[in-house]
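Consider the following assembly input.
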Amino acid sequence: MAIRKRSWIGRLGVAAGVVTLVVVSLFPVYYMLLTSLKGSTDLLAEPPSFLFTPTLDNYVQLLVDGQFSRYYLNSIEVAFWSSLIAVFIGTMMAFAFNRVQFRLRKLLFFLILVPRSFPPVTTIIPVFFAVRALGMMDQIFTLVLFEAAVRLPLVVWVMRGFLRNVPNELVEAAMLDGCTLTRTFFQIVLPLVAPGLVAVGIITFIDTWNAFLVPLVLTNFDAVTAPVAILSYMQSEEALIWGIIATGGFLTILPILIFSLLLHKFLLRGLTAGAVK
Amino acid sequence: MTIPQQRRIFLLFFLLPGMAYLVIVRIVPAFFTFFLSFTRWDLTERSGPEFIGLRNYIEILHDQPFLYSVGRTLFFTVAATGIELVLGFLIALFVHRDFLGKNAVRASILTPMVITPAIVGVIWYVLFHSRIGPLNWFLTLLGLPTVEWLNDPNVALLSLIITDVWHWTPFMFLLCLSAMQMIPEELYESAEVDGASRGQMLVHITLPMIRDTLVVAVILRSMEAFEIFAEPFVMTGGGPGDATETLSLHIYKAAFLFFEMGYAGAMVVISIAILVSVYSFYWRFIKFD
């Protein structure tokens, strides 16, 4: 909208509104960071203290004495491999959907999108049975397999948009020159959609990183991920444990915060690509 | 290579493996749940599933806790989505202008939507704490009475809605803002020449131009709100009583706390039926070319 001249009262109003929005958005996260830096006396302070000498005790206790670093690595592994698999298979599928006309195309595309709109709780029961029967409980591999499948439809959906921009002639020319299909895909198509691959990869990573129900049900000791691990601390009623919980919480969202700060625009374009065309 | 040959290779190597994977990991389980819903299968007993026909479904019709959880989830979905839509739209309208630090402000507003749902639960569990939490401290500062945010059955669901509004208003904001940015500037300029007021521009230009986006935003958001699980699981465990027991949480408890797999399966089928009937019109908005 065109910039209009505003009186100083108007400007003050805008400033107040902007400040309120920023404070409401960021205060909860800031307060968690604050809590993670509190020592035992400050944690129990009533009213809550905002000015105190920060300590790294909670971080030391969680990362050095506890198992949390292991669960954290689990989260990284699961999110990394799931995104890699989902992006790879999803891009190939999107490529096929774009290039080939076949009878069931529309139906198939519909079929892969439908399960996405079903809540995670709708498939967790049979998956639990299958995983148990196959003796695959509590393994990173199992989580990767399942989470990748859940993210796959979104990848197909978004990559279809990116692949549409690859000129048909390029692909056809390469194949006429005797390039095999696989080579055309890897050497010509993939480099052209690299930005799309990165964007959708990061979104898939964050999405898997945030997963809760599936790791909750399918893990119990070895393959526990960070968000699930924090819960075990919450069983305690003791207020002192808050420092630990807040620390775990802050560490868990830290990579996501960094990602979204670094790749702000990039990420948002990707996040909305599936929604608005 | 001939065209039909190419086509076969494409389908064989690029589509089939992925399709097979999806069918095995996503679609077969959905059908298994359907099968399960006609059985009685108590995991605490040794025997396998026992076919009982429609008995689970008949029982569900009289199952008050289940019906309440459906109603509660629908109420939560409508309330949260509605508030998020209005707030997101207003914020987009407000920030859709030039001011100092515009980009930083937008980035800050968008922060909550990327945060892990379980951690959102942790964050608000701390904020809502009745004694040591900052929210009640703030109310005391203003001279207001404190609130038992998570322990009062009448307030707990509202607290969950507040949490969700904080978490997801940014999503509505983002969609509204990006739709508003697509509106050609000339429309407003010519309206201004014609002497239209700001309110008229809003009703006759902005709203109609972003209508489709709003529809999609509401559908996407309400679908996810209907599935809410991590936040109530972390913050209240469904309590106090069953004040915050959402549908997903209720089904989870039936399956993994009480091990009534067949019954939980039937609840899953019913919840999918609700989703499908409410959102069947969704597919009209998906453009396929």
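Chain A is about 75% helix and 0% strand. Ask yourself how this observation constrains the way the partners meet.
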